[in-house]
Amino acid sequence: MPQLGETVLEAVVTRWLKEEGEAVEVDDSLVEVSTDKVDSEVPSPASGTLTKILVQEGETVAVGAALAEIDEKGKGDGSASSGSSEPARKAAPEEEPVAETPSSPEPSSPEPQMARQAGAASEAPAPAPPPSQIVPSAAEPMRAVLSPLVRRLAAEHRVDLATIQGSGTGGRITKQDVMAAAASRVDKPLSSQVVEFPAPAQPAETPRKETVLEPGPAGPGEEVVVVSPMRRAIAEHMLNSNVETARAWNTIEVDMSRVAHLRMLAGPSFKNQEGYSLTWMPFVCKAVTQALLKFPLVNSTWNGDGTITKKRYVNLGIAVALENGLIVPVVKGAEGMNIMGLARSVRDVADRARSKKLSPDDVQGGTFTITNPGTFGSILSVPIINRGQAAILSFDAIVKRPVVVTDEFGNDSIGIRHMTFLSISWDHRIMDGAEAAKFLAYLKELLEEADFTSDLGGLLPA
Description:
Layout: E1 10-16, E2 23-24, E3 29-34, E4 39-43, E5 48-53, E6 60-62, E7 68-72, E8 80-82, H1 148-156, H2 175-184, H3 229-244, E9 247-255, H4 257-274, H5 281-294, E10 300-302, E11 308-310, E12 316-318, E13 320-322, E14 325-327, E15 330-331, H6 339-354, E16 368-371, E17 391-395, E18 399-406, E19 412-427, H7 433-449
Parallel strand pairs: 12-16, 16-17
Antiparallel strand pairs: 1-3, 1-6, 2-5, 3-4, 5-7, 7-8, 9-19, 10-11, 12-15, 13-14, 17-19, 18-19
Helix pairs in contact: 1-2, 5-6, 5-7
């Protein structure tokens, strides 16, 4: 089982793509696995015959464990090559899209440090020790492997990680371990958040426990199904985001008629050149990146120590609906792309998400997310904020509606226009309604009035 990300320690085998006795080649897709970050296909590390499957579908396997045995071609002794004795090679990369113009290097800005020392030394207890001080024993080989969430929670709740006995695989310290340790310290405040006005003392929090209902036998017309690892990860991620953030939302109506006209003019040439249609999404993505640069608070992170990190770059998450769930791959450096580049990049990550070709890096590092329920007919929606981000934009269906149109002389008339609602859910800890409303107003102005012709190059007729 290959390492599919720094914090990924195990995976669930969801489907074998080859059977015992079947011939395989190097880099053939061998098995599908599911982690809490992505669903991936594991390629064969060798050519030969798949002689034995060691992990069955539905079973959980640790990173580094053998998945199967392969008899390599040309070896008469019948010795088997184990999946754990030879590193699995990466699947062949997808063909690189044509470079967009203008180009921009991927921003090198590091992700913000999520766990900062909180408060003055005279007032706060010693912060949690860095991972280097947590020395794993032979019986706990994974003890020093700490996820960013564990580090942040330990810093926020002032928990000494060296004193925690990890309950995870190989002694790994989990979120539940940190929260349990924090709850036991009833004599100390759990939050290191700095407030600007007096607030009443809050009682110590206790770890939130999910109510587990024992399923009974299915009745007439009912079916009990096992939740997939992806659905479990989505459930935990969304619930935690909803609990952690102070979510509010705004919406604005946008006239997309100018964009519709550009799509009509450039669409045929774009499809002939790229092989797929020019959608609304790259225009919205372009406007969003420019609006985020103007309003960086919308593109920021709440650090939990009285600070906020504003990002001067845009790593744009694009929500992609899958048959069994939802995933948000990230277009890195989106602020430097034109509409052509964004169209290619969004298409690329969406295709790879649906074909299970994403790597863990493809779903990390996002600074802002766009979800597009409009493709399914939704006309107004309020999404949950992606954890670690300040806001998320919902792009709903574009429909023709009669609206009042005012000409340059102030005369009103009724016209048919391509209209949509753009809604933003935002974290009230980071910003107020005025900032969110100004962001939406500027986004509306860009989509209704900005000149996108230069982004479309030679696709427009002379």
